[in-house]
Specification:
Order of helices and strands of chain A: EEEEEHHEEEEEH
Strand order of the largest sheet of chain B: 6-7-4-1-5-8
Structural class of chain A: alpha+beta
Number of strands of chain A: 10
Shape of chain B: globular
Low-confidence stretches of chain B: none
Oligomer: heterodimer
Largest sheet of chain B: 6 strands, antiparallel
Structural class of chain B: alpha+beta
Distance between the termini of chain B: 37 Å
Mean pLDDT of chain A: 79
Strand content of chain B: 25-35%
Radius of gyration of chain B: 15 Å
Helix content of chain B: 10-25%
Number of helices of chain B: 5
Number of helices of chain A: 3
Largest interface: A-B, 27 and 28 residues
Number of strands of chain B: 8
Mean pLDDT of chain B: 95
Order of helices and strands of chain B: HEEEHEHEHEEHE
Chain lengths: 168, 151
């Protein structure tokens, strides 16, 4: 198929994509092997045959964007959006964790912090990154349970993270 | 200056343990697996922000809920809570019972509002706020009554 326009050149068409072209007006399924659109082509719309597999970085970016998008009173009870400091700490942690299948549930806190929460048969772990960077945690394993500042329960938190790291 | 909730509020024993306490939550408070709601995240059971607490003139942080018995007197269902313009966004309704709250060292005090006679607060009877574990326990025990729209 020729004469397709795209705002960005280099757009890649894959086999199976449904393409609508303006000039000449045409609609159909792209039958060729993956082909890069050349500058000056006229493409109006493309419906992907198959969405690209999301990467671990996509997940991190998506979660961080969800947090960044939170506005004042985002929960209806006066919650503040996460502070830049909390976001920075969470972002660094998630980049190290992103390749693991056992991903945390993530949510802001009323005071502008962020909570990371895991729950499995063997381990419950909640990490609270405070709005000023202070950190608290709650850990439950089969043998013990604790809650408090991260530095006071470091060994148990590391043990929990190890179990989650290798969790299927 | 806010004080500890246990010294500011009083657990109202006229509210029976079986009483459902409805809480309005936003869609990002739900754990979704594909299109299925798994459960509520623990931060959904946090106390409201300190700034909002002071703004409302409350003596200590607490968590807003709505009493089932009072709602029934008014002929209200959980979904009716979302008709208030304040909750016109992507919100849903979940509930715990007063007994489940008390099992986690929480109290329940009636705090009717002009536009909401069923309003009450759940507060931590010990310490300055609800702990991470207590929030988790309430979240695990909670049930979803009105599902918010999937984000």
């Amino acid at each position: 198929m020729t004469n397709i326009l795209r705002e960005e050149s280099g757009f890649l068409l894959s086999e199976g994509d449904v393409v609508y072209a303006k000039q000449p007006e045409a609609y159909g399924i792209w039958r060729s092997r993956p082909t890069q659109v050349s500058p000056g082509a006229f493409l109006v719309a493309v419906k992907r045959a198959r969405a690209p597999e999301p990467t671990a970085d996509d997940w991190v970016n998506s979660e961080l964007l969800d947090l960044v998008d939170l506005e004042e009173d985002w929960d209806g009870y006066g919650a503040h959006p996460p502070t830049l400091l909390a976001l920075e700490i969470v972002g660094k942690f998630l980049k190290h964790w992103s390749a693991q299948p056992c991903r945390p549930w993530i949510m802001g806190t009323p005071e502008g912090g962020v909570i990371l929460e895991w729950e499995t048969e063997d381990v419950d772990l909640i990490l609270e990154i405070g709005e000023e960077g202070h950190n608290n945690a709650y850990v439950r394993t089969q043998h013990a349970e604790c809650e408090g500042p991260v530095h006071e329960h470091w060994n148990m938190i590391c043990d929990a993270l190890d179990r989650l790291w290798f969790h299927d | 200056m806010l004080v500890d909730p246990g010294s500011a509020y009083e657990d109202d024993l006229t509210i029976p343990n079986e009483e459902r306490l409805y809480r309005i939550v936003k869609h990002n408070a739900i754990i979704w697996k594909d299109d299925r709601a798994v459960r509520v995240k623990s931060p959904a059971f946090s106390d409201q922000s300190k700034a909002r607490t002071i703004e409302l003139g409350y003596p200590a942080v607490a968590m807003s809920v709505f009493l089932e018995s009072e709602m029934k007197k008014l002929g209200l269902e959980p979904a009716d809570l979302l008709k208030d313009p304040r909750w016109s966004g992507p919100y849903g309704v979940v509930h715990i019972t007063a007994g489940q709250a008390r099992n986690e060292e929480q109290g329940v005090e009636r705090r009717p509002l002009d536009n909401s006679p069923a309003h009450a607060v759940v507060f931590a009877t010990q310490g300055s706020e609800r702990t991470l574990r207590q929030r988790q326990q309430l979240a695990q025990k909670s049930q979803i009554d009105v599902l918010p729209p999937h984000p």
